[in-house]
């Protein structure tokens, strides 16, 4: 209950923090990058999806099945393709904008605590490399976890909870990426960050889950989701660090 209260209050307060800290312009930059990336994925997705569907159709000789089963299999292939592209698109987007979100997280902490940061170019380059490293690792872990859950879908009653399990897995690793923007400023190694997140997995899953819900709001979502989630998650992570006497 405490986790839910802290997460939702932080997301609610994030709008005021964005306004007071002068971060409104950061709605647009991640959104513009996201739109270009989304356009590229739509173009590639249409091309690759058609080729994939045709290849599977010929390989499994789907035409030989009944019309209803044939349509069902084609829809299933389309859903799996869209889902895969979403995972790649979201993970790639977070990797590309990680320097922006890292800076936003820093500004939020300065606004809330008055603490100043004077990072050198070398520090910023290290943060960028770390963001890419964690983003790629999170992506592969998400893919493995998602595949395991989908394989378990053949077991009843686990198959009834597949959408929820996938949502939780996606939320956890997405939340981890956002929380790490704050953890890296306190010189926690990737392993230490992961250990910290394992203890706070509920917070990570809730933050990542809200990001996913915001992200799926048509048009507006790609602009507001990264900034709001980054600000709220920074506030949450700072509070958790205080409780663990790491600040």
From TrEMBL:
It is a multi-pass membrane protein. The keyword Transmembrane helix applies. Pfam families: EI24 (PF07264). Keywords: Amino-acid biosynthesis, Cell inner membrane, Cell membrane, Membrane, Sulfate transport, Transmembrane, Transmembrane helix, Transport. InterPro entries: CysZ-like (IPR050480), CysZ/EI24 (IPR059112). It is found in: Membrane. The chain crosses the membrane at residues 26-45, 65-88, 139-158, 203-228. This is EI24 domain-containing protein. It comes from Fusobacterium mortiferum.
